[in-house]
Fold each of these.
Amino acid sequence: MALTQISTAGVKDDAVTAGKIPANAVGSSELADNAVDTAAINADAVTGAKIADDAINSEHYTDGSIDTAHIADGAVTGAKIAAATIGHSKIADESITLAKLSHGTSTTDGKFLRSNNGADPSFEAVTSTTINNNADNKIITGSGTANTLEAESTLLYSNPNLEINTDTSAYASVILNGNSGGLIQFEDNEVSKWQIFGDSAFNIYDDVNNASRLYIGSSGQVSIGTTTASSDTDTKLRVHVPISSSSDDVIELSHNTNGANKAGASFGLSIDNGGEGTNAATLTFATASGGSLNERMRIASNGEVGINITNPQAYASSGHGYNGLVVQAPSGAYSGITIKSGYNGGGGLMFSDGSGSTAELYNVALTADHINKRLNFYVDGSVVCRLTEHGFHPNPTDSAAANALDDYEEGTWTPTDGSGASISITNNNTAAYTKIGRLVYIQFDVTYASNSNSSNSSLGGLPFNLATAYGSGVVGWTDKDSANGIVCHVDTGSKCAFMDNSSSGSSGDKHLRNDELSGTRMIGTAMYLAAT
Amino acid sequence: MALSESIEYDKIEVVGQYKNVQVRKATVIKKDGKELTRSFERYVLNPDADVSKEPAEVKAICDAVWTDAVKDAWKKKVEADKT
């Protein structure tokens, strides 16, 4: 029977096997709708060509089944990325260019992006903000070539201190560059107190009192208390004292005593008068004693120098007429001037005549020779006399002790009876003596009391002991003619014996007895050498 | 203003081999403590002198220097001068 004669009914169920179907014999029309189940499809049998365009939707993908390789390059657009879904971990390092950052607006131009601790960052101007990740307190500087920062500066700000600290340069510097100079102002709660400014000059200015305190001019002249420079450009310091008729210290030197800062000395000015035309001022010097400054020396406006005296000029103009120097010791001490030699040679006090000649240099002088222990008196350039350890030498070429005048004294003495007879002697006038060196010159005016004593007369009580040699003298006047021609003989025991030199004397040895002078007044003199 | 006068034995000198004592008695006048004048009176004490009435300072020196030997020597000198 021909195949075309067997109907579907003539085929038993399950009678047609796969072997009875020729290859490629079953078309899609022979398949019932929904007849091919998953099991009837070979694994990997469905190729991309068997899937209709746009036929696969998201429900046919297993979660997590699409890997990166099945997404075409450039296939994921911004629309396919959910909002706020890309975290910073999805962005590669250094992958975001400046163009992808917000460009800001005109109001944020030049400002920096600031972190806000939980809030959105904001553009802000950098004022006192500290830039993180730099060394403590250092300020960032600009590059000078672009709108970029260069690096940390050596300028440190640590409230309230601003410091330039450089390790690479010898000196740190601050430059204030204005059209007319630079200025630094010091304020106290917004009130200006002091200013330092400089242009062609340098000025430290007291803004409270509107006064310059220190001024340095362009020629280097320093002025304190004024902006007027010294009268001579070579004079580099002027200190101004705002007085016109009184006196005041100008410069004070201080020291530490027991840890306290105390004044030790000062220089000052004393204005002689207020007349600007006379411009007369005195320079004063003071030292401290007992806790306060006291003037010790001054140079008066007329050049007179005074030590421990405030009116040296008066001693010349109203006193002795000699100008120059007046020295007075501090209160309670003797005044004096010491000329100390630089070695043991000597020193001098010279009086020159002002002629300008060579002779002026040694016209009149007083010089000390410490080696020979001499004080020489010069007149007209030569030593005219000198003092040595032996005394006064009128002849300056002779320094022998024997020729030195080593003593001079005047005084009185009391003539007494030297005979031992206790004769009363009346001194009509005070007896006197003058001793020049060893030579003693005595004067007496005595009256012997009436007596009948026969001892040899003599006056005792002489002022100096007699040397080995005798002395002698005369009685120049007596009140009795019979007593004329009496001489004196100074001898043993420093007694002045009276003798009659015109005769042998009643005692045979020219001595006059006491009774021969009874009631006689005698005025006489005698000289003798004193014992040493 | 106060004037004062005082006596000072301002020089007591021992001179010569016989230890004669030279005494200078100074009369000092002062005004308000400052010396105005100083005038001198002198005398000599020999080793045989009576010094009992001399000021203590003078007497002390005389007693010190006038030993018996000095007194004897002086006595011999005086006696010798008489001959």
Note: Chain B touches chain A at residues 15-16, 20, 22, 24, 39-44, 46, 77-78, 81 (CB under 8 Å).
Amino acid sequence: MKYLANVSTLQFFSDKCTGCGRCVEVCPHGVFEMRDKRANLIDRDRCMECGACAKNCEFSAITVNTGVGCAAAIINSLIYGGAPSCDCSGTGSSCCG
Amino acid sequence: MQTVKFVKKETPRWVSGVIKTPAGAVSRVSSDWSRTDMLGMIKSRVGAYRMHYTVPPGLYAVGEATRDSDVFVTANYKLSFDIVRRALKGMDAWVLVLDTKSINVWCAAGKGTFGTDELVRQISLARLSEVVSHGRIILPQLGAVGVSAARVHKETGFRVSFGPVEARDIPAYVAAGYKKTKEMSLVKFSMLDRLVLTPMEINPVMKKYPWFAGAVLLLFGLAPTGILFKQAWQGGMPFLALGLAAVFAGAFVTPVLLPFVPFRSFAMKGWITGLLITFLTMQAMGGATGQSALLLAAIYLFFPALSSYIALQFTGSTTYTGMSGVNKELKIGIPLYIIITVASLLLVVLFKLREWEVL
């Protein structure tokens, strides 16, 4: 399953990559692959902007705008202000648990 | 050391004794699920029960854990913990439970509660470096959203490996020498995965349904002479049924059939299933015959859009939608939803005015 094309903010600077392989280890959608001892960005459209790769890249070779891809969270933030968050505890039972 | 201690009569069924370590006694847990555990899983899948379904954070043992046994980290959402201890059946291992406020690993990692600081804190509270000698810990892969392996290493000396996404792959991962197959590192979203999420899509919407029902009955019951109950019911009933059908389309049919509904956009997926279910519901209620053209227009404008809006909420529960995509959908969607709602309301009002022979 793939979501909308050409929307992900994922950026990969291959010149900074040392080939440690952390991004391949953490990406849940196989966006990166190791080739010739370097990471390769093979499919940006699979990226869900979770941010695991950027957080674990010690060499700042990856940037991505992370955030919750949740319509309810984004609508809440539009109405009540603040950044979108999964924190639906105010409404009690909705959202992730 | 912060050992997890239970007063005798409070000891849960899943605790089966203690293991002594240089850092104190550690509760040993069973890998079997009792009926209480099964029931807890079901209750936490459907409602607010999940918010308090928790285990005390800290270190636990499985089997005859020793200084050489692996350490697996998880969240203190009891269902996450249960799935891990079940996956470790027959192994000797440690389980370090982080305080994620009863939230699963992935969501908690997104919020930062399953995060670097909490992991560092629990490693030190459990005096883990005295319990094991190998200096390695294994995290669920999805925890990587909140945990920087490099920082954990710097602050505690422990080297982090991100294991498989699913706890059930842990035995195979360990047997392969701590190597993941590509399959093990991909997050899936099977029909069953989607099906178990639908109660939490339907419940929040149905909480708002009484408001919709009240508005519909009021609108149709309204007459120049006051509110007529017979009219409210006769005119409103089809709308109430169509409302339920739209919830069914957006919160159940769309999630379950997700990859089979055309388009990648959730708003489009929900609109398509909504249109189909609205049509089928209309057929079941005797078709369009005898319906005013104004009401028909309002029905086919509003209910597919309602289903579309509800389906869009499912983006919060999937394993593959990102924020930029949802933002794009909302930017186009929200103005449309508002226009459609206002337009269909106007059509119904127009119908009422005709009915009252004002127009």
Note: The CA atoms of residues 87 and 182 of chain B lie 19 Å apart.
